[in-house]
Design goal:
heterodimer, A: 109 residues, mainly beta, six-stranded mixed β-sheet, 11 strands, globular, B: seven-stranded mixed β-sheet
Amino acid sequence: GIQVEQSPPDLILQEGANSTLRCNFSDSVNNLQWFHQNPWGQLINLFYIPSGTKQNGRLSATTVATERYSLLYISSSQTTDSGVYFCAVAKIATNKLIFGTGTLLAVQP
Amino acid sequence: GAVVSQHPSRVICKSGTSVKIECRSLDFQATTMFWYRQFPKKSLMLMATSNEGSKATYEQGVEKDKFLINHASLTLSTLTVTSAHPEDSSFYICSAGEGSWGNYGYTFGSGTRLTVV
């Protein structure tokens, strides 16, 4: 099956710093999404981005489908950005969303 | 926006008993429901996919007799953990899918934390 690897696995930032999270996937996909999982386990959908670039406030994401990777940029990080970030991908044949390994982000005041 | 209600949010049960988790799409009809399991500090692992009125399709390594999935309507899917044991303790999350080619969306429930004692 498709493999989804994220890096780095853990990241500690000072408030105000910028960061880049990476997602590599092993096969062509039709759907790629970035999620933030809060401390209570709720998954918050950040971006639907199978290709191209999108921005939403301090967050932006870029997917280069031909090279099978996606990047999530967090600028001017805040303590509320802490949590786990997942990318997830799906192929149109199955619509099964497969999650990456995740990046645990801790933003310190 | 689309909302998926998952219930209960937390449950503690005794070893050997069964537990049922419900997942409802509140304002849309979900063509497909997905069930995930998450261990502490780990990623979400897809357990099974269910379509309304059909038998669920389980991922490799997931015991279908242990994790019974019923998808009786377009708005309700249930996961029953049968004869639960401590190793079944985990965080279970459902997701409802809707849409068509090129425009398929997923909405996640808030999860159920199961503790088997």
